[in-house]
UniProtKB/TrEMBL annotation:
PANTHER family: AROM/DEHYDROQUINATE SYNTHASE, PENTAFUNCTIONAL AROM POLYPEPTIDE. Belongs to the EPSP synthase family. Catalyzes the transfer of the enolpyruvyl moiety of phosphoenolpyruvate (PEP) to the 5-hydroxyl of shikimate-3-phosphate (S3P) to produce enolpyruvyl shikimate-3-phosphate and inorganic phosphate. GO terms for cellular component: cytoplasm. GO terms for biological process: amino acid biosynthetic process; aromatic amino acid family biosynthetic process; chorismate biosynthetic process. This is 3-phosphoshikimate 1-carboxyvinyltransferase. The active site is at E323. It is found in: Cytoplasm. HAMAP family: EPSP_synth.
Length: 435
């Protein structure tokens, strides 16, 4: 593969886009499927897994704890498929979480089940991302963890081969992944788990539903607020998990920049295999991008978004779908009216402080964005070219590419950071544009 330059000239669209874009598998589904397959009592398959930095880090970490993961083609010889062979989890092991929230939060509970010490380390930014919900809860549930007292990486989980489990209270207002992490491993805790969220807000509910659905699909019994349980309480009963043959859905959040291209250029983009029913937050794009001026049609082939040529501002609470914020902010900066994006204070603790980064980078191109306590006000202005910094954040890079479609001379710094969740974004982008 040719080396990507440090500054990537984002291509402008000289005409309306008309393209079909095959988007690789979902990060969130792939990493949950890997964890559940590793904890199962029989082998399983993942078909069409995402092969990106975050998912390869997850696979490598599970291997380090004794799980065999064979990367190859599926049982019927079509497409990429990974076979996961569960085994006794063991230390000593070292896990590099990179800057993957799913790896740093989902794996300490798995490590608590291992026989031996598992050390967790990662990128400098990973030291700043909240992990206290997982560390404190695991201690209450019976685990021994050494950390430096900040409630963050680096840390060592001293697994003893089993964990008591039981009831625990956490404040997951800084990340839904605290809840998902405890639920995913809970069927293997001696008493299962009862997680009670005590904070005032809880972001990314669709991702918690994804965790619950995927647990149930491998045979776990899960009680949720939505299934008649108490508000903010989830219970998982101990029990063996099945090995499944699971086809991973395309990553709908990574479909966002391509759909945005149809909206911004007044063109048409088809994303094949868009699921008819899904817990992925990206499914909300059908509604949000319709409000912003597009029209969406979900057919047997996938999702088609057609732009009208007009882009409208929105006033929207993105608390459930925070990872869509950078892409929506980019489209909003090109709209014909102002936007207010709400409910996303927790984005300050994502790959970078996304509210600060979007404000600074859009304003450096001539924009008028202000941060609020829980989001952004975006007043569209004529933008000009310049460097768009990404702060090692894949979604900053794709946001910059969206703006570059309409603004000449935008140069994206470190576009290679998109490899966190999307292999070869520049190739897919130029392929869509036919340049
Ligand atoms: O569980 C998951 O797969 C995710 C949950 C969300 O995390 P937060 O609740 O921390 O925002 C989301 O932003 C992240 O991209 C993926
Ligand atoms: C917040 C994100 O990732 P992570 O899983 O690292 O939290 C994201 O992908 O937008």
């Amino acid at each position: 593969m040719p080396k990507t330059p440090a500054l990537w000239p984002a291509p402008t669209a000289s005409e309306a886009v008309d393209a079909t874009v095959h988007v690789p598998g979902s990060k969130s589904v792939t990493n949950r499927a890997l964890v559940l397959a590793a904890l199962a009592s029989e082998p399983g398959w993942l078909r069409r897994p995402l092969r990106s930095r975050d998912t390869l880090l997850m696979a490598e970490a599970l291997r380090a704890m004794g799980i065999e993961i064979e990367e190859g083609v599926g049982p019927d010889g079509t497409g990429e498929a990974w076979r996961v062979l569960p085994a006794g989890l063991r230390g000593p092991a070292t896990v590099d979480v990179g800057n993957a929230g799913t790896v740093m939060r989902f794996l300490p509970p798995v490590a608590a089940l291992a026989d031996g010490a598992v050390r967790f380390d990662g990128d400098p930014r990973a030291y700043e991302r909240p992990l206290h919900g997982v560390i404190d809860a695991l201690r209450v549930l019976g685990a021994r963890i050494d950390d430096d007292g900040r409630g963050a990486l680096p840390l060592t989980v001293h697994g003893s081969g089993a964990l008591d489990g039981g009831p625990v209270e956490i404040d997951a207002s800084s990340s839904s992944q605290f809840v998902s992490a405890l639920l995913l491993s809970a069927p293997r805790f001696n008493q299962g788990v009862e997680v009670r969220h005590t904070g005032s807000t809880l972001p990314s509910m669709p991702h918690i539903r994804m965790t619950v659905d995927m647990l149930r699909a491998v045979g776990a019994q899960v009680d949720t607020p939505e299934s008649g349980g108490e508000p903010n309480v989830w219970r998982v009963t101990p029990g063996a998990l099945l090995g499944r043959d699971l086809t991973i859905e395309p990553d709908l959040s990574n479909a966002q920049p391509f759909l945005a291209a149809a909206l911004v250029t007044g063109g048409r983009v088809l994303i094949p295999d868009w699921p008819a029913r899904t817990t992925q937050p990206g499914d909300r794009l059908r509604e949000i991008f319709t409000e912003m001026g597009g029209s969406c049609e979900l057919t047997d082939y996938g999702l088609v978004l057609t732009g009208s040529g007009a882009i409208h501002g929105v006033d929207v609470d993105l608390g459930d779908v925070g990872e869509l914020t950078p892409g929506i902010a980019a489209v909003a900066a090109l709209a014909d009216s102002p936007s207010t994006l709400r409910g996303v204070a927790h984005l300050r603790l994502h790959e970078t402080d996304r509210l600060a980064a979007l404000t600074k980078e859009i304003n450096e191109l001539g924009g008028d964005v202000t941060e609020t306590a829980d989001g952004l006000h975006i007043r569209p202005r004529p933008l000009h070219g310049g460097t768009f910094r990404t702060y090692d954040d894949h979604r900053m890079a794709t946001a910059g590419a969206i703006i570059g479609l309409a603004v000449a001379g935008v140069q994206i710094e470190n576009v290679a950071t998109t490899a966190k969740t999307l292999p070869d974004f520049p190739g897919l982008w130029t392929g869509m544009l036919g340049v």
